[in-house]
Amino acid sequence: MQALTNRKRVLVTGGAGFLGSHLCERLLAAGNDVLCVDNFFTGSRDNVLHLLDDPHFELMRHDVTFPLYVEVDEIYNLACPASPIHYQHDPVQTTKTSVIGAINMLGLAKRVHARIMQASTSEVYGDPAVHPQPEEYWGNVNTIGPRACYDEGKRCAETLFFDYHRQHRLDIKVIRIFNTYGPRMHPSDGRVVSNFIIQALKGEPITIYGDGQQTRSFCYVDDLIEGFLRFMDTPAGATGPINLGNPGEFTMLELAEKVIRLTGSASTIEHMPLPQDDPKQRRPDIAKARAMMQWEPAVPLDEGLDRTIAYFRGRFFA
Ligand code: NAD
Ligand code: UDP
């Protein structure tokens, strides 16, 4: 159904989570009506509290594994726990959220003729044998390991998006997000950036899993959201998948040293066992994003960490 105003009606599933809350903020600032749908599994009302008084913002408690009947013009499908401890807490529900959630949101997009974006992940590459990872790489995923509920759920969601595109001519956009950090990360989600910052601010040992030589590439949240918006505005047919992430690559040992220096903490480093199937290396090849939409991250790791440290200090240590 066509909207009666010029404002675009945008649905963000998982909108009360870390990335979703930043996305809702940017969409409102750009003059859209935003419908934020979340079951509050890992997200919270606190993340969007500052948006609740905006008449163009609506918050709905809903689980995407159940059908949703709303009228919207655009959909960003972010609903899914993202940190390993959260998605491994109830692995069956994680797969259901990715797969049944995708089917429900694709069905909605089909009914209302909405453009739909899927928040996929670098985890579709698993423990990659190709480095850095281009979109053409098919990945190296253990189908029966503890990360599979997330990795395979996201891979199947990508399959569904492309089948809806081919079979029903749906206007799809698939982004593969690499590790992203920033304010409003869940303080106990166990992800490396939030863990290290909280440990440093408490003066507790920084927990490095394994020898700390595994690498990740960290993208500041504002850069990532800019990539979301630019890709959503590319012409129909530009389906992706497209990598979004910061190509700067760091070992976990380097990250720990940075966090200790930037917080001025006296924390020491403690080594703990490496979790099963932990990818040894990860860095996005972002040539496609650069060429297609002149996008690349602008915030260096030290600056992004400074902002994230300021957030955690203000929120939990004031
Ligand atoms: P998050 O856990 O903060 O946000 C996920 C949101 O989805 C939460 O608000 C949660 O309550 C909600 N949710 C979970 N299951 C749901 C369900 N069944 N129905 C409705 N809502 C549900 O994580 P995030 O970092 O903001 O990640 C958002 C998306 O981006 C996820 O799909 C994730 O897989 C993807 N992603 C994130 C990263 C990253 O580094 N942050 C990297 C790759 C992919
Ligand atoms: N990691 C770590 N200490 C921590 C938390 C994580 O050394 O306290 C490591 C983890 O083993 C992985 C990397 O940091 O190699 C990134 O972990 P995270 O859970 O943030 O993301 P993902 O593994 O999904 O990329």
How would the blueprint of this fold be written?
Elements: E1 9-13, H1 18-29, E2 33-38, E3 57-61, E4 74-77, H2 84-87, H3 91-112, E5 115-121, H4 148-168, E6 172-177, E7 180-181, H5 192-202, E8 206-209, E9 215-216, E10 219-220, H6 221-232, E11 242-244, E12 250-251, H7 252-263, E13 269-272, H8 287-293, H9 301-316
Helix pairs in contact: 1-6, 3-4, 5-7, 5-9, 7-9
Bound molecules: nicotinamide-adenine-dinucleotide (NAD) and uridine-5'-diphosphate.
Residues 13-14, 16-20, 38-43, 63-65, 78-82, 86, 97, 101, 119, 121, 177, 179-180, 186 line the site of nicotinamide-adenine-dinucleotide.
Characterize the structure shown:
The chain is of the alpha/beta class. The protein has a domain at 9-183 and 219-247 and 283-299: NAD(P)-binding Rossmann-like Domain (Rossmann fold), CATH 3.40.50.720. Helix content is 37%, strand content 16%. It is built from 9 helices and 13 strands. The strands form 4 sheets. The chain has a 7-stranded parallel beta sheet, with helices on both faces. The protein has a two-stranded parallel ribbon with strand order 7-10. It has a two-stranded parallel sheet with strand order 8-13. Helix 1 (18-29) links the parallel strand 1 (9-13) and strand 2. Helix 3 (91-112) runs parallel beside helix 4 (148-168) and helix 7 (252-263) packs across helix 9. The radius of gyration is 19 Å and the shape is globular. The N and C termini lie far apart (48 Å). The model has no long low-confidence stretch (mean pLDDT 97).
